[in-house]
Amino acid sequence: MANVTIKDVARVAQVSVATVSRALNGHGNVAEDVRTRVFAAAQQLRYTPHAAARSLSSRRTQTLGVVLPDLHGEFFSELMRGIDQVARAHRLHLLVSSYHGNPEEQGAALRAMRGRVDGLLVMSPIVAAPALLSEELEPSLPTVLINSQAGLDGTAVLGVDNYGGAVAMVEHLVARGHRRIAFIAGPRDNFDAHERLRGYRDALARLQPGSHEWVVQGDFDEASGHRAGHELLAASPRPDAVFAANDMMALGCLFAFAQAGVAIPGDIALAGFDDIPLARYVHPALTTMRVNIAELGARAARLLIAQVAGEAASETSVIATELIVRESSGIPPRTLS
């Protein structure tokens, strides 16, 4: 259909031209059923807003920027899936960049987004993130931080209850009768890793007074989990249980144990954190703390879209974790000291 206008979309959707404009521009103050009706009418009529005119009239790019420490692995895949679903529902585009954990590259990525996006989703779990971000973020640009240390005035932060999740996992392992509980820690400069280590230490001190913590360094990837697994196997006595600060390290550790012929959970119990999709499909299936990763991304995107529309103040909120018990921690160790 030639020369279809916004008025035609409004007529078919049975709403005002202003409502069509708000819906197509991603404003949050449009009921979802109305938004769906507007999109359906626009699709039926094959209506496409003129991008240049739309940008000039609204001074918006219809694009959200996403800056992440990495794009590799199931965690980031799930996070992007959640962000993308919300962006598509609001007819918005995504401009995605990764800084590979390098603070200087993070700054370059944030600078490259200026003038090209209407708002930013930034995951910056670097411990020094507040100081780094304060130098690079434009105060006037709506921004939502994901899994980042709070500390920037006026910036919304959406995170995971890393500390509470780690405490709950140690409680689970102790309740199963495990006493020598080793922990594979994440990167030293990572805020999530700090909180999970803090939860492990506090829970161990409370539940097993006088016991010694057993921390092996990891890097949130499979290779570091594999190395940690071999290090733990060389210890005497070996641990009763191993709690890895994320699932990727737990899976690397699981492979090391399998190579050595160690039975899980018969010889050593094993647990992770995140509940990536692969966790339920390995053998034995992995006990873990569930983070609804896709919902984390979706919720952050919805919060940012509301901010872009001027309808939300900054806030700090935490997403709860859930203990998922599977076979890898299913039975107590054979011998307790």
Folded structure, characterized:
With 337 residues, this protein is an alpha/beta fold. The chain has three domains: 52 residues, lambda repressor-like DNA-binding domains (434 Repressor (Amino-terminal Domain), Orthogonal Bundle), CATH 1.10.260; 129 residues, Response regulator (Rossmann fold), CATH 3.40.50; 137 residues, Rossmann fold (3-Layer(aba) Sandwich). 43% of the residues lie in helices and 15% in strands. It contains twelve helices and twelve strands. The strands form three sheets. Strands 2-1-3-4-5-11 form a six-stranded parallel β-sheet, with helices on both faces. The chain has a four-stranded parallel β-sheet with strand order 7-6-8-9, sandwiched between helices. Strands 10-12 form a two-stranded antiparallel ribbon. Strand 1, helix 5 and strand 2 form a beta-alpha-beta unit. The C terminus is likely disordered. Keywords: DNA-binding, Repressor, Transcription, Transcription regulation.
Layout: helices, strands, pairs:
Elements: H1 6-13, H2 17-24, H3 32-45, H4 51-58, E1 63-68, H5 74-89, E2 93-98, H6 103-113, E3 119-123, H7 129-136, E4 143-146, E5 156-160, H8 162-175, E6 181-185, H9 191-207, E7 214-217, H10 222-233, E8 241-244, H11 247-259, E9 269-271, E10 288-290, H12 293-308, E11 316-319, E12 322-324
Parallel strand pairs: 1-2, 1-3, 3-4, 4-5, 5-11, 6-7, 6-8, 8-9
Antiparallel strand pairs: 10-12
Note the main attributes of this structure.
transcription, alpha/beta, Rossmann fold, elongated, 12 strands, 3 domains, Lambda_DNA-bd_dom_sf, disordered C terminus, 434 Repressor (Amino-terminal Domain), DNA-binding, 6-stranded parallel beta sheet, 337 residues, 4-stranded parallel beta sheet
